[in-house]
C-alpha cells in the first residue's frame, strides 16, 4: 500500500496516494507506529498547565496521557494509567495535588511517584519506587506543549535542547518572528468530530487555497487569492495570503494584514492572521479510526481584544461557518474515496505543493 505512492515522481506527473491510505485499518496502525509514536506531537498549549497542580489529559491512538505542572512549577507528562490494574487515573482537565485512582485508591504525586498503595498488607517483592507512573517526554515550544511517545528513551535534557529544530526545522525562527509566539492569550476551544480519515482534513488544508473560491465564498471575499504562496520546509509548510481591501504595505517580516497558515507535520496547523486584529487559531487533527477524526480548534487573541464581545462572537461565528463548510467537503471526499470508482487522483502542481510535500513525508516515514 505504501509503495503505491511514488514520491520520486515530480508533482507534475505524480499520482496522489491510493484510496487505501484513507480507508484501511492496517494503514492507520502503521501510521500510529511510524508517524504518531515517533518524534514530537503537539498536544496542547502552555496556559492549560500554567498554574501549579494543574493537568490535562488526552489520547493518541492507544496512548492515554496526562500532562501536569507540579507544585514547584515543573512540567511532567505520564501515561495516564494506574500501575495497579490499569484504570485511567485522570480525566479531562483540572487541578489537584495528586492523582487518586478512582478504582482502588492508589495515589500518585504530580511527579509520578506512587504515594499510597491502599490495602496491600501482605504483598511481597513490591518496591513502591518501581510503581510510579510511566513518564513521557514533554517539551514546550512557544505557546505549545509537545509530547514524544517513542519507546526508546532519550534523557529529558536531550529532548529539550533540540525540540524547536527537531519539530519545526528551519521554519522555527520564521514562525516565531511572525507572531507564532506567546504574545496572544487563550480564548476558547471548539472540537469537531468528522467522518473522514485524518489525512482528508490535512489535504483540504494543504491545497493552497484551491477550494476557497468554490467552498468558502465569504472567506474568499476577504482574501486576495492570487497572492497565495506556499513554501515548504523540512516538516513544515507555510501558506500565506494577503488580505482583501485592508491589505497594507507590510512584508511578511511583520504580519500586517497577511494570513499565515502553517502546517506542522503530521497533524497540527497554526493559523495566524491580523485581518480582524491579532488572532491565532490552532487545529490539532486526532485520528480516531480509518474514517473518523477529531479536530481540536484552540483560539488565541490579543488580551486587549478579549473583552470586545461583539468582535469575539463575530470572529468565532465566521470561523464556525468555515469549519462547517470544510466538514461537509471532507465527509464527501471520504465517501468518494470509499467508492470503487476512485483509485487515486492528480495534483494541481501550482497550488497543491504543500499537499504533495505532506504525502512525500508520510511515505518516507512509513517506509522506514
Ligand atoms: S486500578 Fe488503580 S487502584 Fe486499582
TrEMBL record:
Pathway: Amine and polyamine biosynthesis; betaine biosynthesis via choline pathway; betaine aldehyde from choline (monooxygenase route): step 1/1
Pfam families given in the database record: Rieske, Ring_hydroxyl_A
Sequence ranges assigned to domain Rieske in this UniProt record: 40-147
A Gene Ontology molecular function term of the record: iron ion binding
Entries under CDD domains matching the protein: RHO_alpha_C_CMO-like
Protein keywords: 2Fe-2S, Iron, Iron-sulfur, Metal-binding, Oxidoreductase, Transit peptide
CC terms in the record's Gene Ontology section: chloroplast stroma
Function description: Catalyzes the first step of the osmoprotectant glycine betaine synthesis.
Protein name: Choline monooxygenase, chloroplastic
